[in-house]
């Protein structure tokens, strides 16, 4: 029940951009479409960095053909493998933070914090096109998802060893801790039963004088501080609608 909520959060990546080469998959695993290594090596590093940093903020990104997005019921990568290319509509994405960690042409190491739905492969492709030499993604590491950091993670063999030693409990996060990024709201006592049964709650049935926006997700508790689930605000009916229930 939590997986889709965790995947939708802001993410941070460390990516290696290879300039002077573009491929059909927009990364180095694909078939090379263009090569212009000499032009990539001739780039002025300061100019290249300025162009790269220009992608910070909002921009419209065309999803790659090699992706799981569907067009007319078919996944794009299935069409691409069949040798077909279809028109894709550009989608708004946001690059919240963009830092150039190092430039050793034709490679650029970048740190990117972005909104959900952003393709780092496509960002690399778009940067290469803006620089006039082409570009693709050579390497990608996800370093953060929401409040979860790569350095705090455990490898599978480490988890197995801790479990065998009976020491895994301190490393397990509770549901409420995982969802701590969502603001908390509390049902009024007279609305407790409605909340526990998964019914929507109007704003006047919630204790806090919150000012939620359309689609805002909140952690709902009953009046006795018992965690119930994630409720989403809908402006059309002015109520909080259940999205995920965790009451046991």
Description:
This protein has 248 residues and is an alpha+beta fold. The protein has helices at residues 3-7, 37-41, 45-53, 76-81, 120-131, 156-164, 175-178, 192-196, and strands spanning 11-19, 21-23, 32-35, 57-61, 70-71, 74-75, 91-104, 107-114, 135-145, 148-149, 184-186, 201-202, 217-221, 227-234, 239-245. The strands form four sheets. Strands 4-7-8-1-9-10 form a six-stranded antiparallel β-sheet. The chain has a five-stranded mixed β-sheet with strand order 11-13-14-15-12. A hairpin with a 2-residue loop joins strand 7 and strand 8.
Strand order of the largest sheet: 4-7-8-1-9-10
* Strand/helix succession: HEEEHHEEEHEEHEEHHEHEEEE
Radius of gyration: 23 Å
Q: End-to-end distance, in Å?
A: 14 Å
**Number of strand elements:** 15
* Biggest sheet details: 6 strands, antiparallel
- Helix count, DSSP H or I runs of 4 or more residues: 8
Unreliably modeled segments: none
Indicate the percent of residues in helices.
Answer: 10-25%
Form type: elongated
Determine the mean pLDDT. Answer: 91
Estimated structural class: alpha+beta
**Share in β-strands:** 25-35%
């Amino acid at each position: 029940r939590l997986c889709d909520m965790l995947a939708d959060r802001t993410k941070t990546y460390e990516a290696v951009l290879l300039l002077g080469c573009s491929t059909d998959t927009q990364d180095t695993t694909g078939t090379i479409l263009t090569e212009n290594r000499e032009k990539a090596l001739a780039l002025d590093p300061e100019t290249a960095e300025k162009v790269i940093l220009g992608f910070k903020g909002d921009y419209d990104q065309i999803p790659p053909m090699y992706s799981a997005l569907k067009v007319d019921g078919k996944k794009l990568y299935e069409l691409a493998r069949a040798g077909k290319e279809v028109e894709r509509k550009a989608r708004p994405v946001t690059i919240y933070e963009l830092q150039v960690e190092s430039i050793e042409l034709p490679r650029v190491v970048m740190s990117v914090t972005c909104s959900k739905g952003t393709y780092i492969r496509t960002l690399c492709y778009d940067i290469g096109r803006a620089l006039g030499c082409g570009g693709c993604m050579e390497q990608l590491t996800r370093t953060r998802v929401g409040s979860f950091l790569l350095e705090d993670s455990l490898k599978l063999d480490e988890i197995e060893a801790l479990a065998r030693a009976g020491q895994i409990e301190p490393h397990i996060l509770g549901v409420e801790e995982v969802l701590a990024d969502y603001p908390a709201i509390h049902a009024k006592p007279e609305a407790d039963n409605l909340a526990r049964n998964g019914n929507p709650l109007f704003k006047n049935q919630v204790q806090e004088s919150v000012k939620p926006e359309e689609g805002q997700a909140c952690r709902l508790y009953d009046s006795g501080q018992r965690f119930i689930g994630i409720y989403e605000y809908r402006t059309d009916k002015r109520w909080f609608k259940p999205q995920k229930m965790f009451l046991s």
